[in-house]
Amino acid sequence: MSGWATGTGFRSTGSWIACLAIIGALAACSGGEDPLAGAGTLDRAKQTGKIRIGYANEAPYAYRDIVSGELTGEAPTIARVILADMGITEVEGVLTEFGALIPGLKAKRFDIIAAGMYVLPRRCQEITFSNPTYSVGEAFIVRRGNPKELHRYEDVAKHPDATLGVVAGAVEMEYAQRAGIPKARVMLFPDAAGALEAVHAGRLDAYGGTRLTINHLFGRARSERIERAQPFADPVIDGKTARGYGAFGFRKDDADLVAAFNTRLARFIGTEQHSKLVQPFGFTAEELPGGTTADELCRG
Question: Which candidate, 46, 80, 192, 259, has a CA 20 to 30 Å from the CA of 111?
Fold first, then answer.
């Protein structure tokens, strides 16, 4: 007990009690609680000026620029404009594999999915989407000369040994299944770069992705060993040509955040400011979503 009376410890029991009293008073003053405890995502973000967005490092939708290190792409660029208008000026990116974006959002690793994610009925069962910011068709990257003549998903299905690569969790897996491609001939990748490398290395016959993703990857690859499949026909689902609509994803209990986001999004999409901001990522007037809403897309 010598430490309590002399030497290395407090020199008296009275001093120890006095110290405890001071600590207790400080805790009482602070309340000992998070002042934002119980606040919704929107209220918390407005009060702190910060919010987290999940992205999957897929250009041109959302990716980390290898030179500047900045989180960029169509989705983060639009998000910053909309959120700043809401008084939220600090946006933190959380890198996540595409297939883990919805689980990550629901687990509150981040607050918004900003990855150009398509609005699909099955996804609408798990999260809420903003209205779409773009619409786009599909494309393939194939080996040089396209030796197996793969110009649509159905061509892969018909060829006895053609293989197709898709990003895990992406809509292209559904397109492949609907086209009748056996699962054994569909390879899953965590990202588009991995699928592109597999085609380049000759381990894969084609990589299926959105037209904008394919254009961006092909433009950067500058390789004579691969090419875009031309011409290319978009998949037909239930008698209709499939076209993807990308949007932001939110948790189901963040209805106020979705409403505020959509209100500002409606004033922004299609403006000159919007056009100038997304043009560097390959988006043009052809990719505008028109009057299509998330509710319509969720109903299928």
Answer: 192
CB under 8 Å to 244, separation ≥6 — which residues? 118, 135, 136, 137, 138, 171, 210
DSSP state of 58: B
Determine contact, residues 79/112, Cβ cutoff 8 Å: yes
Question: What does the pLDDT look like over 200-211, one tens digit per residue?
Answer: 999 999 999 999
The verdict on domain 138-241 having CATH code 3.40.190.10 is yes
Task: Tell the residue number behind the tokens 């979705």, with chain if given.
Answer: 258
Closest CA to 75 of 251, 221, 220, 261: 261
Question: CATH 3.40.190.10: which residues of the chain?
Answer: 41-135+245-293, 138-241
Name the one residue in this structure whose structure tokens are 């793969």. Answer: 150
CATH number for region 41-135+245-293? 3.40.190.10
Q: Within a 13 Å sphere around the CA of 183, how many CA atoms are in the beta-carbon half?
A: 1
> Within 10 Å of residue 49's Cβ, how many Cβ atoms?
13
